[in-house]
Every structure is written in C-alpha cells, then in structure tokens.
Design a protein that fits this description.
Elements (H helix, E strand, L loop, with lengths): L1 H28 L6 H23 L5 H15 L2 H13 L3 H25 L3
Main location: membrane
GO molecular function: fluoride channel activity; metal ion binding
Family: Belongs to the fluoride channel Fluc/FEX (TC 1.A.43) family.
Length: 124
C-alpha cells in the first residue's frame, strides 16, 4: 500500500507542475479573453483519463501503483475535472443516466454555491 501512496504523491507532484507550466505558458502566449489555461488542462486531462482508463481495461496486468499514480496522482494534480468526467461517463455507461445528470447538476451547482459561500464568509 505504501508504494501506491508514493506513486500517487509522485504523480500528483508531476501533474501539479504540468498544470502550473501549462497555465503559465498559455497565459503568456494567448489572449486573456477567457480562462484558456483552465479549459486547456481540463480538456487535456479528460483526453488522457479516457485513454488511460481504456488502456487499463484492456491491460489489467498493469500494476496498481502505475494506474493509481497516473489516474489519481498525475491527472488529479493536473485537473480533478477529468475524474468528474470519467465518473459521469461511467454512470452513463452503466445505464444510470438520471444519476449521472444529477451528479453533474449537483457538482456544478453545488460547486458554484460553495464557492459563493466561501467568498461570502470573507465579507463577514
């Protein structure tokens, strides 16, 4: 189990650094009309988690340390949106469409509400 923890920590460090580097590069080289850096890492993370998930389904012999290090660590450090997207897709694939749409609605609306509440607390 300790090997999995270290793999997740190492992957998380690399994913976080890639997020920072990607964001810095995009912000320095692209117009600032939109949250381009956040959008880019979210889309990249979703592409990578879809690929890795499919690969790991085809290759169950890939060690847990590598799977957890890449999915939970690296992609978790790069973006949690990719995990959210995969969770939603898995709900849809298992025939739980109402649950998937509820999960999306609660995540987005709940996240916005929690962010607003956190910001509001600073004004008290």
């Amino acid at each position: 189990m300790i090997a999995v923890v270290f793999a997740v920590a190492a992957g998380g460090t690399c994913g976080t650094l890639l997020r920072f580097a990607t964001g810095s590069w995009i912000n320095a080289n692209w117009p600032q009309y939109f949250y381009t850096a956040t959008l880019a890492v979210n889309i990249l993370g979703c592409l990578l988690i879809g690929y890795l998930y499919g690969l790991f389904l085809l290759r169950p012999d890939i060690p847990l340390e590598l799977r957890a290090g890449l999915i939970v660590g690296f992609l978790g450090g790069l973006t949690t949106f990719s995990s959210f997207s995969l969770d939603t897709l898995r709900l849809l694939e298992s025939g739980q469409a109402p649950m998937a749409f509820g999960y999306v609605a609660l995540s987005v609306l709940g996240g916005l509400l929690a962010t607003w509440a956190g910001l509001s607390f600073t004004k008290l």
